[in-house]
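Example with several molecule types.
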Amino acid sequence: MQYRVTTWLSRQTALVLLALWLLPPPASGQAFRIEVRPVWRGQAIALDKAVQGPAGDSLLFHTLKFYLGHFEFLNHGATVFQDPGYHLLDLEAENSLDLLFKLPENLHFDSLRFAFGTDSLSNVSGALGGALDPSRGMYWSWQSGYINAKIEGQAERSPARGHHFQLHLGGYLPPAETLRKVVVSAAPKPRHLRLDWDLASFFEQIDWPTQHSIMSPGPAAAQAATRLAQAFRNHAP
Amino acid sequence: MRHKPVFQTIGTVAALVLLAFALPGPPPPDPVTLRYPAHWRAPVYDFSKNPLTRQGIELGRRLFYDPVLSRDSTVSCSSCHLSFTAFAHVDHALSHGIDDRIGRRNAPALMNLAWARHLMWDGAINHLDVQALAPISHPDEMDETLAHVLQKVQAKQPYPRLFWEAFGDSSATGEHLLKALSQFELTLLSDRSQYDRVQAGLDTFSRQEQSGYHLFRQYCARCHEEPFFTNFSFENNGLPLDTALRDLGRMAITGQAADSLKFKVPTLRNIEFSYPYMHDGRFRKLREVLQHYTQTTAPGARAELSATDKADLTAFLLTLTDRAFLFDPAFGFPLEK
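Resulting structure tokens for the full complex:
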């Protein structure tokens, strides 16, 4: 009898544990999705597909990879929730453009603040993992630091061989740091948000003779980072 | 008792599930503490982010000696950093890499890296963990990408097991590969030279060595600071610019004119073996180095040395040779157990 009670008890325990493991976690928290879309005057950009510049000149992208992170959800300017992680968005890996967050239930927020680029601590901390793993092609090798955004392609107006252009924007040391904070409105409180990154005005203003190739930190990279950070907006505010 | 069979089945499933959860994880790797002389200051490397373990060090050593890190599997880290010459590229003024291509700089000796704040002659790299990216992806060195190296390493036995044992994850990630290399490099400690024994009161200098030590303190120690024989910073020791290489050193990184022709002060430990000397390997003999210091007009670098002084100073520099380091089997090519 003693024996049977114990086996039964342990079976009950196993059962409870199994149930705990199999059942979905208690429904606390709400999912929130941010769909980031690189666009050209509102139209989704596809790799290797030409878009038109202001003078009818054509331009296409081969690579579009960039870091976003440190998402903060704000209500009347105060942070009500934050997720300090980094995301590497890569137009070639489409699901990398959808960012998922688990928010506390009934969170009220009216805007979002996030980083375009990586912070200086990440740039001096050696080998990191996940989105920041140096094998993901976003770490400079000949010097230290992350490339916060890699934008490569061909543009009719680029004077480089084959009309190529190559922007590797990074740098964490002042005065040429390239981390930028972006704030977008998130109202009315939705379950998801589409964040457009419109590259058209950046490329329409680019000074092709001097800026078709930015491969190291410096004033040109810093200026480009500022202008690219201004290109994010809520698709349907 | 009608439900018994059902309970039994569920119970078995549950037991299996529990077992699967109880099993994971290799035994924790064996921690290793870096041992260094008591009078040395604490290392700058943050070991809390990458704790040394026997398994991590062993994995790093294997990677260091494995040409799988290069595009065509011909070049390993040890091709340019040979243990018997204090991990410098002996005889090559400018290091040789893949396809026999010649790089721009002389491969420095590797030792006591846990104290280094910057790496490379111009300090371009700010952390040991990310240093290996430079040779792996340099077209004249190993000409690979880290992502592709990881694919190759993943497919090569016994790496998955070694990664599992060291980091509890059998898939090779960039973070873990780089941290393993760091772990091995961090163990390259040179602290067993005659100089070190004299400091510990276990040995003495000859009269000539002692005289050389005085001269050293007078003229050299300002930059080649004891006990590391470097102050870990950037200085101009008066070498004229090589107009073919046009290497401006630190200025290329900081963009500051004041940093023009400044290079990281190299350690003088094992200097007997790490020839040729200077960032471009322009001197083959210590004699030529001392000649330079007596001729330069650079402020703070010039030394007034007679012929006897030079002989004495050289005798002192040879006391920095650390044979126990050079021939330590723990640092050599990893032999199968």
